[in-house]
Prior knowledge:
Elements: E1 7-12, H1 38-51, E2 54-62, H2 72-85, E3 91-98, H3 105-113, E4 117-121, H4 126-132, H5 142-154, E5 160-165, H6 173-182, E6 187-192, H7 209-227, E7 232-233, H8 234-237, H9 239-243, E8 261-264, E9 269-272, E10 291-292, H10 298-306, H11 309-324, H12 328-331, H13 336-343, H14 352-372, H15 379-386
Parallel strand pairs: 1-2, 1-8, 2-3, 3-4, 4-5, 5-6, 6-7
Antiparallel strand pairs: 8-9, 9-10
Iron/sulfur cluster binds next to α12 and α14.
Amino acid sequence: MTATPEIGMVVVQPTAFCNIACTYCYLPDRSNKHVIAQTTVTRLFEQIFASGWASSEITVIWHAGEPLVVPVSFYREAFATIERMRPASVHVRHSFQTNGTLIDADWCALFKDWNVGVGVSLDGPRELHDLHRKSRSGKGTFDKTIAGIRCLREHDVPFHVISVLSHTSLDQPEELLDFYLSEGIDQICFNVEESEGDHVSSLFHGPELRRRYAAFLRTFWHRARESGRVRFLREIDLALPRMFRPEGVPTRNIQTEPLAMLNVDSHGNVSSFSPELLGLKNAAYGDYLLGNINFQTLQEIRDVCLASPLHRDIAAGVEACSRSCDYFSVCGGGAPVNKLFENGSLTSTVTSYCTLTQMVPTDLILEAYDRLEHSPAAAVSAANALSLSVTGGSAAPEPSRMP
Ligand code: SF4
């Protein structure tokens, strides 16, 4: 029997439109200015709360386009509607992943009023950031993004940055750390430029990548700990609780559980599993769509999901991982979107993405743990000793790796 869904993350696309044009962007529809209707947002959360499948903590990530091109007033109305419908037993936290170029005092007021998690895409100092993060006219966006970050700091809004690592930045862990510290950035997440959708990364498939990324992350992590000024490094701080967890508690991988992640586009189309699948085309998997929240109930969408080739093949991929991979107990079977785009099949196993996001951090933590010379019984204190996390950080739970 299939387990009852537990919806823990909802990725809502307020609009597909983005005001800039990064060279590595995978979003296929980023010039479309359509905005999700308030009635669609209302219907979505009515369905989630009525289903009884809402986790006690739901993270709502407004993303998959630039969320800040939609006015502040839109979110004030949407957040208030969701709050009115929310059962007392469910806590909702809103979160934005933004390029930061439009942040001003009005946005900061919204972020503070609603305790919004804010992630800013920033690839490092100007020469690294402007390599790929360009305006629609081809100019670098560093000045506008850093102005947005300084505005967040002026208004005491907690935030994290997500930096996409390139060939150049992989050799510069110390320079990157010095830059973050000079800008008061103390919560950091790294992505490595990936192949997804129309975008093909030259970096991601190189044979040297695992070694280079491990060297980068090892140096960055240890220098960050020495500095005492970094509060959260996602790659380590989210891996630690997956590794040092109570006996018998399985790792949850919400990218492979039906409806654990609900991904909803600006027209109300619903997908699940990896959020990057939404908006992509694939005849065999019905463009990864499971229904439309304006016209179907969540129960109907779940029935479609459970009967779909998409679910069947993702489950087969997890099963294959469980049989073959030493890292399965911390990973839980990986990211379907990367299996599909790197290997051409959801039923496959190892990807460059899982090598970097699961295997490398696990190896580095074990390496550091060995140096601590703790006994297995001291695993919890070892996790505390290795963590940079003071408050848990503002970063959303995985996946929050969209550029
Ligand atoms: S690390 Fe890779 S191969 Fe191993 S379980 Fe995860 S996705 Fe599968």
